[in-house]
Amino acid sequence: MKKFVLRAAVLAMLTAGIATASGIAGASGAMACGNDPEKSYSFAASLPQINFRDQGPNVVALQLALRKEGYDLQGTGVYSVRTLAAVQDFQRKHGIKASGIVGAKTWNALVGHKQHSLTGKFVSAPTFSIMPGERNLDKLATLRGVLERIHPYSSLPQKGINDPGFDTYGPDTQALVKDFQKRAGIKASGIVGPKTWAALIHAVSVSGGWTC
């Protein structure tokens, strides 16, 4: 029940007035649930080429997208041998030359078929920063709503926004943010600023994680 309360609050925030204040664009409930017919081919075409041994937020996003396809990847942010094997297997299964290079054809097969609402048609990065000790519940709900969509960074306490312990940006959530920042090649300060928001939103969008 507590998990439902948190998710309901986050969904309301993403689809109603709080979304506007937070910098996340609003959408109708139906569209936010991925019921729109538009696909994400243009978004897939905008994604950069990724090569073996690359590092950073685009690699995290790739790994999380492959994880959605059933590959056992942890979102390390490093394009290692394990990620290479997953990419090549995905390419072979989709009739793409198994080069391991993630280019237009691979992105199109991996992301392009997803409904546009699931890849962030209605979502933009928040315009505010979050510092350790932040107590604004709207900001905290925005952050945690994004974090819980990034597997395996979703080990958040299952609390509703009115429960004790959910009223401060404390050490537990900071640890998750710092871990993500390290994997995305961002200074692991725990401060959620423009670079961190952009990497978080990008990772969810590429993996098609904007679900109900």
UniProtKB/TrEMBL annotation:
<dbReference type="Pfam" id="PF01471">
    <property type="entry name" value="PG_binding_1"/>
</dbReference>
<dbReference type="GO" id="GO:0016787">
    <property type="term" value="F:hydrolase activity"/>
</dbReference>
<feature type="domain" description="Peptidoglycan binding-like">
    <location>
        <begin position="55"/>
        <end position="110"/>
    </location>
</feature>
<protein>
    <submittedName>
        <fullName>Peptidoglycan-binding (PGRP) domain of peptidoglycan hydrolases-containing protein</fullName>
    </submittedName>
</protein>
<feature type="signal peptide">
    <location>
        <begin position="1"/>
        <end position="21"/>
    </location>
</feature>
<dbReference type="InterPro" id="IPR002477">
    <property type="entry name" value="Peptidoglycan-bd-like"/>
</dbReference>
<dbReference type="InterPro" id="IPR036366">
    <property type="entry name" value="PGBDSf"/>
</dbReference>
<dbReference type="InterPro" id="IPR036365">
    <property type="entry name" value="PGBD-like_sf"/>
</dbReference>
<keyword id="KW-0732">Signal</keyword>
<feature type="domain" description="Peptidoglycan binding-like">
    <location>
        <begin position="167"/>
        <end position="200"/>
    </location>
</feature>
<keyword id="KW-0378">Hydrolase</keyword>
